Amino acid sequence: MLKNMELENDSSFNEIIEKLKTYYLKIWWETTSEKPVLGELFTKEQQRLKEKDLDIRMKEIISAMKKMPASKETQLLMLDKMKWAMRVAGGVSFGFTNDEISNKVVDKFSQTASDFIKEAKAFDSKIGIRDINQAIRNLWIANSIQILLDREIMLTPSTFAYSMLYPYTDNYLDNPEISSVDKQTINSSFRRRLAGEVIEPASSYENSLFRLVEIIESEHPRHLNNEVYESLLAIHEAQGKSILQGSVKTFPYEIDIMGISFEKGGTSVLADAYIIDPKLSLQSVSFMFGFGVFLQLVDDIEDTEEDYSSSHMTMFSQLVGKWDMDRITNRLINFISKVLETEENCPVNLHKLKDIIRNNSNFLIMEAIAKNSSAYSSSYVKNIEKYCPFRFSYMNKLRRKLKKQFKRFDLDSLQMDYTKIS
């Protein structure tokens, strides 16, 4: 953890971000690539029993979906319940090992998602299901931070607005039909608005962006909570840099892909944290940045093959077809453990949730290994599978089965992996 004085002596928020990025890059390079500690081993019989339990849960959810109204938003919530069901059946639910508490957490997350959909539709009646799904993923990160900071799990005006900014900004930047000049113009105007300038929107798109900023300002007045807006400017800057990861295949060291990923992940979660608590302690600032880094890396490793196919370069997709990902995956698992071994009082509930976050992250990585098994040595895949509550063949079969269900409910356009969770 960075010492308090190291952060206090910085003259600007940007310098703090740079220092945090440098700090976590140093931790990454100091982390071993040797076999990590993964915990409990599962026999084939134990795996089959858990698979049987999950099959029952999935059938119940699919049956309920068939009886529901045709609303895509409502069905999306049911699909999200499938993700939770997988973790509960696997014994690594996001929240807690106690089923009663776990169900309460799941219900809270589902409620915030439901509340979000209503607000999103009121804000923009034309918003698509894909955008809603993308925004909810960020909302659940915010809900996770609320747990860590001992806050009530709920949708707030600012968590709504910040989550909405994700599809609005990402999809605009990713749209190949919009010229780079227009993107730069919009980015410049949005940056000025985030910095507090009062400017007239030049389009309906800009008007939506500015309205979302106004929602945050209504909850967090600028003269009282400047750090909120500094953090929003930091993620805006990181998103701009992430364009370099775009549509052309690059080799390691050609572009600072690692630095871009660390900065984007770290600033994204840090902005969530400041929106929830504008007076974050320095210890929490450092932890939240690291939390964001490893969430970004876990997301990237899940999408390895898709990213490579679309020429989106990450630390992992750059290795496809060149090197096995065995050792870099070991390093990621060990890196997550290092980030979680933080100083006391940072944040309030970290000591309660440390093992849960580690287990859930490891489970997501195991899912990524199953999904992208061709990127690994066969011996590595066989060894890791022993630590997974499900057989990899079962997980891949389930993925294919649920994709058919997505098409049945006309939700395949989401292009989402059933395993993903915030």
Explain how this protein is built.
The longest helix is centred in the N-terminal third of the chain and has 25 residues, at 99-123. Helix 8 runs parallel beside helix 9 (204-219) and helix 11 (257-276) crosses helix 12. This protein has helices spanning 4-8, 13-30, 44-66, 72-90, 99-123, 129-148, 157-174, 180-194, 204-219, 226-242, 257-276, 282-302, 304-309, 326-340, 350-371, 378-385, 392-408. The two termini are 24 Å apart. The chain has one domain (4-414). Mean pLDDT is 84; it is low at 92-96 and 412-422. The chain is built from 17 helices and no strands. The protein is an all-alpha fold and 422 residues long.
In angstroms, what separates the terminal alpha carbons?
A: 24 Å
Give the helix level as a range of percent.
55-70%
**Number of distinct beta strands:** 0
Q: How many strands, what sense, and barrel or not for the largest sheet?
A: none
| Low-pLDDT segments | 92-96, 412-422
Structural class by sheet pairing and helices: mainly alpha
What is the beta-strand fraction? under 5%
Number of domains: 1
Compute the gyration radius: what is it? Answer: 21 Å
Q: Tell me the series of helices and strands, N- to C-terminal.
A: HHHHHHHHHHHHHHHHH
Task: Furnish the topology, listing elements before pairings.
Elements: H1 4-8, H2 13-30, H3 44-66, H4 72-90, H5 99-123, H6 129-148, H7 157-174, H8 180-194, H9 204-219, H10 226-242, H11 257-276, H12 282-302, H13 304-309, H14 326-340, H15 350-371, H16 378-385, H17 392-408
